[in-house]
């Protein structure tokens, strides 16, 4: 990007544009710190300029400039993904839309809202609650995740079991396409708004979203079930998702996760030794009372116990899963889209892997549909331990391999999961996604280097061989197991 264009953009946007090296440096990473020696060979992550627009017209002017000069554009919002989705790979412009966070319209009669794409789900939920409404679903990272960001990711989280993914709640979205034009996309437009789902910012910049919402529930009820083994837990989950009145949220923890939560003062000693499932419902008083009876019936069928006295506490901590990183400088892990009927088998193989590597693995997840769970299996990491961190990444690959054995695939692709593309889509599905990209962004300026193909060093054959060899070597990795210190 030439200096003249940088200066022109700085003049237009004033203090909402920066080319300062220190300030740009904050945009070289997202939720997960990754050592430079791993990043620099495959991506140029320092943007030439960061711009913070406030209205759609400003976004359009930025993208038009980029289109004319074929400058890469990367959109940044909450940055709550760990896959470098919001980190540029070819310098260029980072468009930070966090300032586009207004609640633009509320139609209480028809249960509709229109919001700026940079509004977080946390702020949206609270704003709706004040007028007697509520969101249908939201991500577990609701405090930082934005409406637009979750739309262009897979969009499954709390509430998805009952109300479906966020795409089913989207009525329309205002989008700045890669040529700088502004379009209002809906279900019947060309392209349809559904193309944005899981596009990961590669087809345009979402600036406004119209969503279905719901009346604020009259009542809520929370249960916490405990099980001796993963098979019982899976049975309880399968019985629960078959209910006609599905819970708003089902969240599970394995004993590794519960043991750590107990050490952090977030769970009892009894929970620390168990597999647990949080069962959270809301609705009318009659609905929540019926759900409580459903819970007891499903619990009895799976031969589980009840930790009801801890249920409310677990619900209050639903946004704080990553507090688990308190035991170490950082975390590494695999987030996997997994069939529910494979959950016990997956956790059993993770336990075998843990017995060999002694990493202190911990798994938790959300049940997001009648057939699938989002499962996160993690272990502590320290990016300052160069060789050990590289071995840790190799161990993440082995966790993804366990997931694949049980019919799972990575949740989200971005940059780091491109080696697993063949697990996430069939050849025909990937060809269709590439066709959409070429149609809307023929010059590949929008979030390039992501989603559609891996860079050379992440080509599946090369990546797989290297990671498997590294994972098979004697570990120097200093992960934490139990109470050991890094």
How would you explain this protein's 3D organization?
Strands 15-12-14-13-17-18-16-19 form an eight-stranded antiparallel sheet. Strands 5-6-10-8-9 form a five-stranded antiparallel sheet. It has a four-stranded mixed sheet with strand order 1-2-4-3, with helices on one face. With 486 residues, the protein is of the alpha+beta class. The radius of gyration is 23 Å and the shape is globular. The protein contains 17 helices and 19 strands. The protein has helices at residues 3-13, 21-25, 36-39, 56-69, 121-129, 147-152, 160-163, 230-241, 255-263, 269-272, 285-301, 308-316, 343-357, 386-405, 421-424, 427-440, 460-472; strands at 17-18, 49-51, 73-76, 93-96, 103-107, 112-116, 133-134, 170-176, 182-186, 205-212, 214-215, 219-227, 249-253, 275-283, 305-306, 330-339, 362-367, 372-381, 409-410. Helix 8 packs antiparallel against helix 11 and helix 14 (386-405) crosses helix 17 (460-472). The model is unreliable at 481-486 (pLDDT under 50).
List the strand order in the largest sheet: 15-12-14-13-17-18-16-19
Please tell me the overall pLDDT. Answer: 93
Biggest sheet details: 8 strands, antiparallel
Low-confidence stretches: 481-486
Please estimate the helix content: 25-40%
List how many beta strands DSSP finds: 19
- How far apart the termini lie comes to 42 Å
The assigned structural class equals alpha+beta
Beta percentage is: 15-25%
Supply the number of helical segments.
17
* Overall shape: globular
| Rg | 23 Å
């Amino acid at each position: 990007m030439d200096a003249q264009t940088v200066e022109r953009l700085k003049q237009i946007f004033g203090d909402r544009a920066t080319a300062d090296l220190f300030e740009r440096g904050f945009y070289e990473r997202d939720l997960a710190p990754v050592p430079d020696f791993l990043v620099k060979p495959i991506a140029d992550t320092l943007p030439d300029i960061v711009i913070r627009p406030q209205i759609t017209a400003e976004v359009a002017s930025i993208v038009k400039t980029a289109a004319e000069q074929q400058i890469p554009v990367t959109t940044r919002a909450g940055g709550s993904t760990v896959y470098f989705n919001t980190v540029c790979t070819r310098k260029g412009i980072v468009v930070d839309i966090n300032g586009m966070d207004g609640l633009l319209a509320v139609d209480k009669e028809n249960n509709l809202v229109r919001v700026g794409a940079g509004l977080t789900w946390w702020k949206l939920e609270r704003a709706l609650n004040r007028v007697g409404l509520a969101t249908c679903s939201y991500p577990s990272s609701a405090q930082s995740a934005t409406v637009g960001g979750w739309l262009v990711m897979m969009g499954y989280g709390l509430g998805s079991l009952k109300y479906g993914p966020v795409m089913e709640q989207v009525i329309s979205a205002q989008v700045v396409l890669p040529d700088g034009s502004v379009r209002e996309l809906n279900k019947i437009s060309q392209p349809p708004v559904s193309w944005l789902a899981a596009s990961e910012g590669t087809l345009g910049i979402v600036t406004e979203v119209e969503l279905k919402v719901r009346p604020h529930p009259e009542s809520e009820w929370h249960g916490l079930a405990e099980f001796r083994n993963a098979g019982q837990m899976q049975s309880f989950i399968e019985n629960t998702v078959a209910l006609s009145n599905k819970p708003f949220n089902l969240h599970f923890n394995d004993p590794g996760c519960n043991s750590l939560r107990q050490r952090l003062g977030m769970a009892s000693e009894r929970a620390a030794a168990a597999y647990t499932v949080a069962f959270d419902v809301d609705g009318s008083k009659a609905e929540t009372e019926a759900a409580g009876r459903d819970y007891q019936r499903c619990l009895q069928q799976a031969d589980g116990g009840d930790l009801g006295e801890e249920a409310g506490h677990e619900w209050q901590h639903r946004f704080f899963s990553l507090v688990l990183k308190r035991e170490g400088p950082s975390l590494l892990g695999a987030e996997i889209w997994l069939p529910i009927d494979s959950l016990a088998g997956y956790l059993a193989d993770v336990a075998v892997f843990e017995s060999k590597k002694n990493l202190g693995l911990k798994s938790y997840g959300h049940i997001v549909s009648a057939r699938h769970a989002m499962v996160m299996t993690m272990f502590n990491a320290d990016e300052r331990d160069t060789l050990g961190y590289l071995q840790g990444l190799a161990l993440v690959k082995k966790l993804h391999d366990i997931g694949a054995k049980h019919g799972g695939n990575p949740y989200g692709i971005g940059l780091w999961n491109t080696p697993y593309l063949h697990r996430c889509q069939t050849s025909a599905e990937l060809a269709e996604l590439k066709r959409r990209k070429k149609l809307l962004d023929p010059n590949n300026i929008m979030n390039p280097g992501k989603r559609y193909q891996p860079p050379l060093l992440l080509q599946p054959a090369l990546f797989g061989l290297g990671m498997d060899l590294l994972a098979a070597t004697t570990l120097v990795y200093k992960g934490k197991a139990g109470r050991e210190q890094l």
